[in-house]
Amino acid sequence: MELSNLNIEKYLKQNGIKPSYQRIKIFEYLVKHRNHPTVDIIYQELVKNIPTLSKTTVYNTLKLFLEKRIIQLIVIEENETRYDADITTHAHFKCEKCGRVYDIRVDLTEMKIEGLKTFQVKENHIYFKGICEKCLKENK
Fold first, then answer.
1. CATH node for 3-84
2. Domain edges within the chain
3. pLDDT by residue for the chain (140 residues), tens digit each?
4. Do the Cβ atoms of 70 and 1 come closer than 8 Å?
5. Mind giving me the DSSP string for 106-120?
């Protein structure tokens, strides 16, 4: 699914979600910015244009989106929960210097994974940490 050309209202309806103004704007933020935001980031950005928005609404909307599996939860650090509208299989890289989270494309068919033949896998998460290319260039 190409997120950039997505009709958000229609997509929410197709996934059993009533497309309220706040829900549309929260999902739109996730699709447009692709910055793997926290609840606080989403709230701080959207409250500028939606003064009646509450942080509780953001939490509840993200919880609903997770239940309907139209976003995924990213927990690279134990104390930091982020959200991603790209639900395709991919990895994430978090820069330890600037804190930015990058999408990393992976081909799981090329990975040798042993010991899961007798398990039913419902989710997979691959995370990398280090220093991003931008921060490495700034240090030189």
1. 1.10.10.10
2. 3-84, 91-139
3. 455 567 999 999 999 999 999 999 999 999 999 899 999 999 999 999 999 999 999 999 999 999 999 999 999 888 889 999 999 889 999 999 999 999 999 887 777 788 888 899 888 888 999 999 999 998 77
4. no
5. --GGGS---S-TTS-
